[in-house]
Design goal:
Chain B: Belongs to the bacterial ribosomal protein bS16 family. The structure holds 2 protein chains of 2 kinds. Chain A is mainly alpha-helical. Chain A contains 14 helices and 4 strands. Chain B has 5 helices and 5 strands, in the order ααββββαβαα. Classes of the chains: A mainly alpha, B alpha+beta.
């Protein structure tokens, strides 16, 4: 009886845990990402154009800045975080009669223009005579052959190999690699997930969170860390940069995603806000509690001084 | 005769676009094929390159040159295998169904390809060729076997 009730409870609460696509989660992640216009619109390699100069009043300047903020928000749209796709292994027909007819496979693609790429028929006839559906990698490659997307290559660039990734991380080019990965692979393919996990692990190891702040990949990084329950480094980094509200939002997200932890339950009981929330989390959950409390002290001091003065 | 009417319409659709008036009064200079029919066949593309065949699967009139003007391209066929040992074939099934519905005849190689793709049933010549290939490989294997035995006998 007891095991049955435990099973029930587990099923119930796996349905309640928020996913990446929930509005509340997305809202928190967007706020944590920040909006540094100088970083979003920094100079990048582009076609050379002569510079334009405009004479504006203050109002026009404010309007231009507002427009720039809207465009920045569009640029900072987070790419989806999806579970890994299950491999395709459908056999449509087995014709042993055709065995030995040809040493090469025949790959048939349907190039009808207005069907989505996920529903396209791509079918392979093996030299043994079996007619099977193409695997995900074959599908991606052939769709790129017949419907090329701009920067995507047919075979993945060598930068995604492990040795080269290490070199790239030592040069602090995580954002560059993640942008290339986003263009090259589908969001639910295994290579995409592998590259992203490698990047996030490296960032967490070396505490280089600021490289991704104010880019579209920060949300993914935060979500990965929350799921893995390793947000201590990120909280410390935020407190060092005086981003108290961001740290509080992150802890709130953590409590949303893992409501069964001690800190979540205590926070719910006490209905704590801001610094209290952080202290509860520091005491109950984190491994680096001393660090967090120190940082909180450092944050409280200027506030106390300001109050005193 | 209804055939020719359909083909005239296709030509007019292509050259003159919309306009019911033109459909009722076709130009006398417009070339039509009398008694011809539409085929779906392989047309060789890239004829400036020697020893590198590449075919377009094409709906064309029967009397036209093999590589000449076609009505519509329906796909491609690359007979040389690529790095991954695949021969790439593409079909625009939507338009293929339209042309077959209009009464176009696929040629033997196109029918074979469609049979291999699973769109048509398997062509009987495909099966015959597969059996011939098997017989050929068996004959060469027995020949090689007997040659090896001869060599061993000589060596001894």
């Amino acid at each position: 009886m007891s095991c049955y009730t435990v099973l029930c409870y587990k099923n119930e609460y796996t349905m309640i845990t928020p996913q990446f696509t929930d509005e509340a989660v997305k809202d928190i992640l967007r706020r944590i990402t920040g909006l540094d216009l100088q970083k979003v619109f920094r100079p990048i390699k582009q076609e050379l154009k002569a510079p334009t100069y405009k004479l504006m009043t203050d109002e026009q300047l404010e309007q231009a800045v507002a427009l720039a903020k809207e465009q920045a928000e569009k640029l900072l749209q987070m790419p989806p975080v999806l579970p890994e796709r299950t491999p395709i292994s459908d056999v449509l027909s087995e014709d042993r009669v055709l065995e030995g007819m040809d040493s090469a496979k025949y790959v048939f693609t349907d190039i009808t223009y207005n069907i989505p790429h996920r529903e396209r028929f791509i079918v392979v006839r093996e030299p043994t005579g079996t007619l099977r559906k193409a695997t995900w990698e074959e599908r991606d490659r052939l769709i790129q052959v017949y419907f090329p997307k701009e920067v995507r290559k047919i075979s993945p660039p060598h930068i995604f190999k492990e040795e080269n990734l290490k070199m790239v991380f030592s040069q602090d080019q995580h954002e560059h690699v993640l942008n290339l990965c986003l263009v090259q692979f589908e969001p639910d393919s295994s290579e995409y997930i592998k590259v992203h996990t490698a990047t996030y692990e490296d960032l967490e190891k070396h505490d280089k969170y600021d490289l991704l702040r104010s880019t579209r990949h920060f949300g993914g990084l935060a979500w990965y860390l929350v799921k893995a329950r390793r947000i201590d480094g990120l909280i410390v980094d935020m407190l060092k940069r005086q981003l108290l509200q961001d740290a509080v939002s992150l802890v709130r997200l953590f409590h949303m995603v893992h409501p069964d932890t001690e800190s979540a339950q205590e926070a719910a009981n006490k209905e704590a806000t801001n610094i209290d929330l952080l202290t509860i989390y520091a005491q109950k959950e984190s491994q680096r509690s001393g660090y967090i409390e120190l940082a909180l002290q450092a944050y409280k001091q200027p506030a106390a001084e300001a109050l005193a003065a | 005769m209804s055939y020719v009417g359909m083909m005239e319409q296709d030509f007019l659709d292509k050259f003159m676009g919309d306009g019911d008036v033109t459909r009722k009064h076709p130009s006398l200079l417009l070339k039509t094929y009398h008694g011809g029919y539409v085929v779906i066949r392989l047309a060789l593309a890239g004829h400036k390159q020697a020893n590198r065949p590449f075919y377009r699967i094409v709906a064309a009139h029967n009397k036209r040159a093999r590589d000449g003007k076609y009505i519509e391209q329906l796909g491609t066929y690359d007979p040389l295998p690529n790095v991954y040992n695949e021969k790439l074939v593409s079909f625009n099934f939507d338009r293929l169904k339209y042309w077959i519905g209009c009464g176009a005849h696929p040629t033997k190689p196109v029918a074979k390809l469609l049979g291999l793709a699973g769109f048509f049933p398997l062509h009987p010549m495909t099966i015959t060729e597969a059996e011939r290939q098997k017989a050929q490989t068996q004959v060469t294997q027995t020949e090689e076997g007997s040659e090896q035995e001869q060599k061993k006998a000589e060596a001894v």
